[in-house]
Inverse folding.
């Protein structure tokens, strides 16, 4: 497994692969890897001949400097984890490889980026869109893998890849959860043991609301109930809890088309996000079946 | 010569070329082709094995709907001209190929896009940056050719290609002028015969100012003199006339580094732009020599 820290090292390797007709799957990450990230690597290995994982804590997508400073950085551990998964290259760019002197370009997506995390984190999705466009172009990936935990981010990236004609297929992969249902997240490491215990209520409350809305109820009462349960369990604030259309993230009052409940809430000064699709209440299928379906629709 | 109106037709052809190791030069245009555009096509033919000319009147870069409505459209003539120049594909995308339903992405460049035309045409360079990024990615060009008449546009495109890691070299080519020095422009066709006559003063006034500044004078008086001459010759207004650094377009008070005078002025309700480099006052070299030097520096 090669560690590349410059575009030059990266492009030497990818040029050879492309020449040999090998397709490239990329898994962009900010490090602090957990089994959710590793499931994306496994998905990439099933789809493409070559796999690149990128690790870059992107300052442009942090609207809060405290959050950036406290974002976990575990490079040696990350490299060790990726080495067990048959990754070809870990691309850990020096900041100047991403934002060289005089850098002046922003990629912005309207629509799906508005509301939800876009409302509570101004500038966040511009930062995401810009760095992801760059990483997709630097790695010259044929496929890129993103977790559905950051569902709004996934929809922003799908939109920008389509809109800018990037020669890449974007594949969303299911959320990986702990035994108690808590969605894996790098930010979970900042929670105390007690808070980790409380955090699991987030998924349970969303599932409960999703089941009621899927059964035909209007969204209002189930969402308010879920919010009350979350706050009663020790969360300090809820940024949003909403029923949104799956494709364009427009808010819905009821499940009139494929929909998902998305939520962001604060626990122990840590902002957690999660989401549940209304048609996703059965036990998750094995990732291979899931991935095949996504590929067919991509 | 093939006429492609969809991305699909285009990508079928370019995939074959890429597979064969042939490099692609693209000349993005808004049609109404003149010898300036054709010089770009000739440059592309010298550098790349394959040449694509694109014709798309991009609504997003018009800040003025009247200007958009009156922009000349001469598709049959354009195709006939390109057929004489050994172009492989003329890509004339249907608008939905560029801006499909739900299109929501903007590419913005700060810095070089501010001031000059950026100040008098709000939104213009976002429109340019977005469509050019798309055209470069749709054509999968290795080289792209732009005229120096739109010098600020050229610098915006250089910046975005570098910043987004687009796998393309951007090549600026010298302004092509009529016998009286008037820079060729599609908008010239909207001038009356009388106005065409007056228009040539623009280049003469810029050259005169450039010669004085190159000889060591501060910019202020030569630029004011040029402005007075331009207005006295029948132009109705000047949007700007400035001495700017060649690379970052920062305004300069004197020729302390490589510099260019840029001007936009109104004649007969038509907005004309032109520019003169201070080190470019000798008769233009043949385009081949010029191009080799640009390629070496690209």
């Amino acid at each position: 497994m090669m560690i590349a820290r410059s575009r030059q090292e990266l492009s030497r390797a990818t040029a050879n692969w492309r020449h040999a007709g090998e397709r490239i799957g990329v898994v962009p990450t900010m490090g602090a890897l957990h089994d959710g990230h590793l499931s994306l690597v496994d998905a990439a290995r099933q789809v493409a001949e070559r796999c690149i994982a990128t690790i870059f804590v992107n300052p442009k997508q942090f609207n809060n400097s405290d959050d950036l400073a406290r974002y976990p950085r575990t490079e040696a551990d990350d490299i060790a984890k990726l080495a067990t998964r048959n990754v070809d290259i870990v691309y850990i760019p020096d900041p100047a490889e991403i934002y060289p002197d005089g850098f002046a370009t922003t990629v912005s997506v309207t629509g799906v980026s508005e509301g939800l995390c876009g409302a509570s984190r101004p500038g966040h999705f511009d930062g995401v869109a810009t760095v992801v466009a760059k990483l997709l172009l630097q790695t010259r990936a044929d496929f890129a893998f993103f977790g559905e935990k950051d569902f709004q981010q996934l929809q922003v990236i799908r939109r920008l890849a389509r809109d800018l004609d990037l020669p890449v297929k974007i594949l969303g992969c299911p959320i990986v959860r702990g035994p108690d249902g808590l969605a894996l997240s790098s930010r979970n490491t900042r929670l105390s043991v007690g808070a980790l215990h409380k955090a699991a209520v987030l998924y349970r409350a969303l599932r409960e609301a999703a089941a009621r809305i899927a059964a035909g109820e209007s969204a209002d009462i189930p969402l308010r109930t879920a919010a009350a349960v979350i706050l009663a369990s020790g969360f300090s604030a809820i940024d949003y809890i909403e029923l949104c259309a799956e494709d364009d993230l427009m808010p819905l009052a009821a499940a009139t088309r494929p929909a998902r409940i998305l939520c962001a809430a604060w626990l122990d000064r840590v902002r957690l996000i999660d989401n549940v699709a209304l048609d996703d209440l059965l036990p998750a299928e094995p990732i291979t079946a899931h991935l095949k379906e996504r590929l067919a629709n991509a």
In short: Chain A is about 40% helix and 20% strand. The radius of gyration of chain A is 19 Å. Residues 38 and 84 of chain A are 10 Å apart (CA to CA). The longest strand of chain A covers residues 237-245.
